[in-house]
Amino acid sequence: MQRIAPALREDNVPLDLISLIKTILAATKEISFRVGQGQLSGVLGSTLDENIQGEVQKQLDVVANQLFKDITLESGFVKAISSEEEDTSVAGNEDGKYIVSFDPLDGSSNIEINSLIGTIFSIMEAPEGMSADNPDLFKQPGTAQVCAGYVLYGPSTMLALTTGAGTHFYTLDKTHGSYMLTERNVKIAAETSEFAINMSNQRFWQAPMQGYINDLVAGSDGPRERNFNMRWIAAMVGDVHRVLVRGGIFTYPADNRNPNKPNKLRLMYEANPMSFLVEQAGGLSVTSEGRIMEIQPTDIHQRVEVILGAKNEVEKCLSYYK
Ligand SMILES: O=P(O)(O)OC[C@H]1O[C@](O)(COP(=O)(O)O)[C@@H](O)[C@@H]1O
Ligand SMILES: [Mg+2]
Ligand SMILES: [Mg+2]
């Protein structure tokens, strides 16, 4: 089994990017340890604060954010970071080559029930001619990502990573503290009979999504003429991991619960990195209007509709919007 650095060198990843990835992973090992300590860690409750998006922050959101911020900004490789838990981008080294966006703790509502949570990150190169404190550094489409990944703090701690040469899985060897390559070139089968969506929002979806999901639920009695299974982990990291491992379609569609907030998932640190991983595994990742990674961002916290996973099933879903 290979350690992560030699595996990345084989994929011709530049040495400074390998160093940055290792820096990010150092923070995930610390979080993995704290998550593993559970209620003994003293960081599982809620804070009294809200983040910029009006969501109550959990202590672990805050601790994880601080760890990532400190470790990436101190590395010297990073010009600026943006995070779900930071109002705006945070400046690092003026000469840093890279910018990093992250969701330090994804699936916050799962923390207190000892269920799946994770960290999502996305790395781009900093454009020339902008200072480190300029949030416009981040206004690049997902196609500009040079690396994307997530770490899942599950029964084992796993990393899914892409640098544009396939999507690979690594598992944290907790005895030696190293991420080991455990599956190279993960592929999502084009066909599936499994879907993931928060069904409780059904009445708020647009008509095409209602029609698509109705036909899945109708199973062998409906137009699809076969039964579909449903799963919902309520942490995008967990749901996307399942899609990468055994296929499926995952969607968080637009809804009209709150007219000012039609979408839930965030483009820069949820949808884009997951799209890069899914596309590198042969899947599709789109909104009802087009490829997620081609969206030109206007705000670091912007939200986006997400439909991703098995190629044929995502195309089938899109056909309802035509
Ligand atoms: O509350 P819902 O509708 O089940 O939403 C679950 C979704 O919210 C998220 O937990 C949002 O992420 P955060 O925990 O980082 O805010 C996604 O990971 C997940 O897919
Ligand atoms: Mg999240
Ligand atoms: Mg989060």
Automatic annotation (TrEMBL):
Name the InterPro entries for this protein: FBPase_C_dom, FBPase_class-1, FBPase_N, FBPtase
Recorded GO molecular functions are:
fructose 1,6-bisphosphate 1-phosphatase activity
Q: Which Pfam families match?
A: FBPase, FBPase_C
Q: Which domain of life is it from?
A: Bacteria
| Binding of Mg(2+) 1, residues | E84, D103, L105
Which UniProt keywords are present, listed alphabetically? Carbohydrate metabolism, Cytoplasm, Hydrolase, Magnesium, Metal-binding
List, for all copies, the residue spans of the domain called Fructose-1-6-bisphosphatase class I N-terminal.
Answer: 14-183
Cellular localisation: Cytoplasm
As to how many cofactors bind and how, the note says: Binds 2 magnesium ions per subunit.
Q: In which pathway does it act?
A: Carbohydrate biosynthesis
Q: Which family does it belong to?
A: Belongs to the FBPase class 1 family.
* Record's subunit section: Homotetramer.
Q: Which protein, by its recorded name, is this? A: Fructose-1,6-bisphosphatase class 1
This chain's source organism reads Thalassotalea psychrophila
Gene name tied to this protein: fbp
